[in-house]
Amino acid sequence: MSKATYNTTPIGGAGYFFRGVSLAMQPGTRRFVIIPLLINILLFGAAFGYALTQLDDWINGWLSSLPGWLDWLSYLLWPLLAIALLVILSYFFSTIANWIAAPFNGLLAEHLEAKLTGEAPPDAGIAAIIKDLPRILHREWVKLKYYLPKALGLLILLWIPMVGQTLGPVLWFLFSAWMMTIQYVDYPFDNHKIPFNTMRDALKERRGKSLSFGSLVMLCTMTPILNLFVMPVAVCGATAMWVDHYRQPMLNRRQ
Q1: How many beta carbons lie within 10 A of that of residue 215, not counting itself?
Q2: C-beta atoms surrounding 32 within 10 Å
Q3: How far apart are CA 217 and CA 215, in angstroms?
Q4: pTM of structure
Q5: Would the pLDDT of 76 be above 90?
Q6: Residues 186/250, Cβ–Cβ less than 8 Å
C-alpha cells in the first residue's frame, strides 16, 4: 500500500484549483483525465465558439429595449451584460458537459482519492460504470433541481431595469461560482453515497473556501482555451479538497 499524501499545509479554495492542475498531470491520473478532457474540448470548443460570435448581436438586441433617454447607459451596461451572458452560457455548457462526463468524472475522483489517501484503488471497469449510471444521473438531476429555481429568480432579476443590469451580473457570478463548487466537489461525496443536502451543508461551513474555488473555476470556464481543460482539473482540485477537509469527518459520521 502506498503512503498517504494528505495535505497538511493550509491552502485556500483557489489553491485547490492550482493543485488540481498538478494532480491531473501526474502519472496514474492522466489516463482517467483523457475522456472528461475530450468531452469538454468537443462540447466547449463548438458551443462556446458559436456563442462568442453571437455575443455582440445578443447584447445589442437586449440594449435596444432600453428607453431612448437611457441610451447613454449602454456604454456602462454592455460589459456587465457581457459578463452575465458569459457566466450563464459557461454554466449551461458546463452542466451539459458534466452530465455527459459524470461517470468518468466520478471514476477520476475515485482513483485520485485512493492515490491521495494511500488506499488500494477500486477495481472498477466499464461494467461498474454502467451499473452505477442510474444513480449517477439521478445525482446530476438533484443538482439541476437545486439550481433551476434559483437561476430562474436571477434571470427574472436581469430583466428589471437598472437593478437587474447592475446587481444581476454580480449575483449571477457568485451563484455560478457556488454551483461550480457543488458540481465538482459532489463527485467524491457521491462516490461515498453521501446525500446531496449533507454535502451542501458541509460546503456552507467553509463558504469562503467554496466560493474562492468556484470563482476560479468559473473564470477559467469563461475564458476561451482555458475552458477546454477546466473540467478534469476542477475534478482533481475538488477531490483534493474533499480529502483534506471533508473525507474523515464524513466517514466518521457514518460509523
Answers
A1: 20
A2: 22
A3: 5
A4: 0.78
A5: no
A6: no
